[in-house]
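Model it.
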Amino acid sequence: MFGNTEKAFELFAKKVIQQSVQNLTKGDHIGSGGLAQNLDYNLKVHSSGALELDFLMPDYGKFVDKGVKGSSGKQSPKGKRNAYKSPYKFKGKNIKRGVVEGWIKRKGIQGRHKKGTSKGGQFMKRKTLAFLIGRSIALYGLPATRFFSSAFKQQYKKLPNEITSAYASDVEKFLKFATNDYLKQN
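Modeled.
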């Protein structure tokens, strides 16, 4: 019955997802690509005519979007407070073993020992580099990317006009149908 309104919500959802993927790409926040590929939405039309729109993403997407506070509560060595408004926080002094190591391997990152030390300039073992990066992430946190929330806000600002005109069109169609049906009966 309210097909135009449903189409307006579908278009809104598609635009939010498209903008979210663009934000991930622009910000170079795509690791394996799993997050961008698994962004989706579910639009339910209830028998009452009510519409329900849910956005779907892997669980870790909310951490990428809102960031994660570090367990130390301190600013990072770069002087930034990562994700200070985030509800999420690391609890330990390092993150799960193997997570960072896989990321380092995919990205092709190779660490070197600091010059001026006994191993100065030599390549570092991947496990050592993963430990150091994992500890830094756990202590200082991950910055918020706002890839989804900014896309949602941007598209939401445009939504009221689109929904109003779509709903008006649907109501107009319904009134014409109801009027014609009434006139046929009398």
